[in-house]
Each structure stands twice: as structure tokens, then as C-alpha cells.
Known about the structure:
Layout: H1 8-13, E1 15-17, H2 20-29, E2 35-42, E3 52-58, E4 63-66, H3 75-83, E5 87-90, H4 93-104, E6 111-113, H5 114-120, H6 128-136, H7 156-182, H8 186-202, H9 223-243, H10 247-250, H11 253-262, H12 267-272, H13 278-297, H14 318-338, H15 342-345, H16 348-357, H17 362-368, H18 373-387
Parallel strand pairs: 1-4, 2-5, 5-6
Antiparallel strand pairs: 2-3, 3-4
Helix pairs in contact: 2-3, 4-8, 5-7, 6-7, 9-11, 9-13, 14-16, 14-18
Amino acid sequence: MKIEFDPKTFIENAKVIENTEELAGFFARAQSEDIVAVDIESAGFYRYYSRVNLIQIATRSEAAIIDPQKINDFSPFQQFATKSSCLWVFHGGDYDISMLARDLEIYIPVMFDTRKAAELLGMHELGLRSLTEKYLGFTLDKRLQRCDWSRRPLTTAMKEYGLLDAVCLVPIYDAMAGELKDLGRYEWLMEECEYIARQAREAQPHEQDEFAFRIKGSSRLSPRSVAVLREIWNLREEVARRLDRAPFMLLSNQALIDIARQMPRTISGLNVIKAIGRDFLNRYGSELQAAIRTGLEAELAGLDKPFKPRDRHELLNSWEGEIAKSLREIRDAIANEMQIPASVLAPTNALYDLARIRPETLGELQQSEILHQWQVKVLAEEILPVLQQEPPPMTKKTRRRRRRRPGEK
């Protein structure tokens, strides 16, 4: 059923918040609101450091754009998020709330993710554009999706694009919440969202991968070329950090592979490689030569491709593999009956963990925390009998007797 909704009034009256006083005023007016919808934009496609560049926010009463580049003190936002009882609405919110927590120390307590809701409603198209078409009857223009959101001043088109995403989430939430409640799945959604919010609150800084330079195509390089690849990769990262530019915009991965394979010692040799941009070569040619020389002289020990742990299901013995297969069949049948993706009902890796650990009671299944509580309620009756099966007795290995040679006793 389509909802009658005109976002024009919200967009025309929206303000761009550029200081702490205006931010405090917005959240003071939002005290009585039951929901707040948020969408963020970052320039991670263009910049080395992915950060929150714009926040679009909407209630049932008003909408606004918050400019993080102009505001130094986000305490009104932080305090509202901590103290307010409102529900925060996002689409694909795991990324957005993680960015808010990491960059601005804004921790979202209770959220509703419309993308997760679409999964639990069994929808095939999960994008916000599809939801807007389904519930509101118009199509979002996504031409500015890859816009450089760090750019200032904001154009009218950028403002309208960003605001529309947040404003549309309010009526979409109303429609989806009603459908989930009718199906008895609203609490399932809220449990999934609590898990997402908790992950954002407890997230630890990512450790840098020391083998990140092993890009596509590097497996066909010689050990010496891999050593060169490592050095020129590190140079590209250093320059990208310095300029706050996306590394691939400075020097493509194909250029890295070509340089590592050919290992040119001179600027003339580098000029032959077409994938190297002339601007990069003019500015950093000498540094690139130095990196190549370092790679040519480097020790080759430790450059082997890092050991990649096998998938969990590969670590199961044959009996556990049969258990996992039975669990998958049960999961798939129930998910098909509910008309939701099987991975939403239970991720395959979770089934492999269950097959290996084999909790035998409802209490053990809940305490394992392999499945979320709503998943346990849906699956327990069917999967516990499978998990309670006794493994077959181990067969003793028999030693092969050596044939006696002629003359031996």
C-alpha cells in the first residue's frame, strides 16, 4: 500500500546547521519526538581517511543538514543520543552508526534498520530506492551517490539529495514497522538492530594488514617482484595519507603490478608503463625509483603469501559435516516457508559452529550465543534432535601387515 507523502515541505524548510548553538536548538525541539531518522555521507571514495562529511537528520516535524566540517562541539548530539528515548531510524545502519561512534563519539542506543526490516519481510530488493518506490510511489535520484561530500560549499542538488534520504525514512519506518508487527517479526528486527548497535559501541580499531600489498595479480609475480610491490605499495599509501586522497586515484593497482613485474631502474623505464599517470611520475618519480631500489635489495624472507585459515566447515570431521548438512536442510526449509533469505534465519557459518559444538539442550543452545534469541525460538524444535544424535563409534585403524620375503621367518 502506497503512503501519501510529500517531502517538499521538509526539504524547503530544512536548515544547514553549522554551529553548536543551532545543533542544541534542533535537539531541544526534538525532545518530544518518537523517532529520528538519520543518513550520513562520507567521501571515502575520494579520500584516504573515510570520515563523516555530512549528516542528514529528520523527525516528524522538521529536517536539517548537520555539517561536521563546521562544528567542533557535538555534545548536544551526544547527550541527546544518550538520554532520549526516541528510536533512531537508519537504512543500512551498521556503517552509519559505526562512523558516528568512531568520528564523533555519538553512540546510538536503539535503532531500526529499514534494510534489515526488508530482509525480514522477505523482500528481494533491499535498497532505499526500492523501498521508496514501494511505499511512497516515487523514485530516488541516485546520480549523486558517488559525489565528493567533503566539497564545500554544498550545492542545492547535494542538499536535496542528502535530505531526501533521511526524510523518506520516517514514513517508510511507519509502514515497515506495521508489517513486521502483523507478521510477529518486529521484536526479531529489534534484536538484530540491538546487535548492530552493540557492535558499533564496542568496536575496536582495525589492525593494519601487513599483507595488504598482496593485491590481485600479485600471486603470479616472482619473489623479487613481490618485494618491489611491497615497497611501491607503501610509497603509494604514504603519499595518499599525506594528501588525504584515495590511493587508487594516485596510482592504480594495475600500475603497481606492472612496475613490480618490470622493475624499471630509470625514469625512462617508468615512462614506458602506460598505467602510471604522468602527474604522479613528475611529482614522485624519484621516490618511486628509490622504492624500487629498496625492493630490489630487500630480503625475500617473510614475503610468502600469508596463511589463510580454512573455512570453518572444512575443519569439521565427516560426522560433523553430516550434522551441518542436516542443519542446512532444516534451515533452508523453514526459511523458504517463511519467505525470507536462509542466511537471515541463520548464517551458514553459525550452522558449522553448531555442528562442531553440538549444544544438546535449549539452554545450551541459548548460552552458546551462536544464534540470536529469535533464531533459537524459530529453529530449536527442529535442530535440537539433530544436534542430540550420538556420533558413531570410532573405528580402529588396522595396521597393514608386511608381506614376508622368501626365507624370512
